[in-house]
Amino acid sequence: MTSGQSHRDFLAIPDFSKDELTGLFALADRMKRGVHVRKPLVGKTIALIFLKSSTRTRVSFEVGVTQLGGHALFLSDRDIQLGRGEPVADTARVLSRMVDGIMIRTFAHADVDELARYADVPVINGLTDLQHPCQVLADLLTIRQHLGTFDGKKIAWIGDGNNVANSWLDAAYRLGFDLALACPEGYDPDATLLARAQKNANVTLHRDPREAVAGAHAVNTDVWASMGKEDEQQARRKAFAGFTVDSKLMSGAAADAIFLHCLPAHRGEEVSADVIDGRQSVVWDEAENRLHIQKAIMAVVIGGERLG
Ligand code: CP
Ligand code: NVA
Asked: Quick one: which atom of ligand 1 is closest to the CA of 132?
């Protein structure tokens, strides 16, 4: 068994302090502008484990590793023995003997905790049923780029209290901006993360999307049935009636409000086509920012880059 103490993981947003997050956004900005030219992953191999589908996360991590000088190893459940039941702990021990960092996308968050506990190399959370921290850091980078700052801004989350919503709670907990969520009854975010965020920030939970959106500077949504919940699709369509982010709902937000969606999107369900394809939508910048923020995360936790 390994100590798990000698490396730095990124499993959830509070793994970084507020100052470190500020440094991470600045580093990602420099990477986006092409000002950062160091290649902190030269000679390093990063394993990318995917037990769920992905377009953005896979491509941004693979491209990001290449741009930082390293080699990315894509491992799906069809490729590695983890998919056939090899224990997470054994996978962690073996990979740690060969690679310099591991990114994992999977179902149970406890599996990522276990991987990190048994790995001797940094582990990055690329989405679990509980969290999607890389996504929300990319979203915050997008808000900074479009609105200048998230300090003093109101962010609205409309729809499912899912992994992305939970990471928004963690972001509000660390950074202190206003967050208003509207979720149908039965689809609330994680109660522990909600309570913790409410201690540090103005975080409110509503049943009426119009209340959450009122005066918001950024309006954010996601699919009604996340990966692993496909069999609930019909029931969820009913439960989420009235939660579509359409132009009428957007009209209650601040006049210059931006629209965010982590993608993939279902036009006509959680968002109308005129909103996601309209002038307030910043979803393509948001998708691109996955690359920049994850390069910054990898440079710091795997490449030894210092912040600030
Ligand atoms: N937003 C996001 O994580 O997209 P993928 O599922 O395509 O990686
Ligand atoms: N909440 C979604 C995010 C996809 C990137 C899911 O987990 O499927």
From this structure: 3
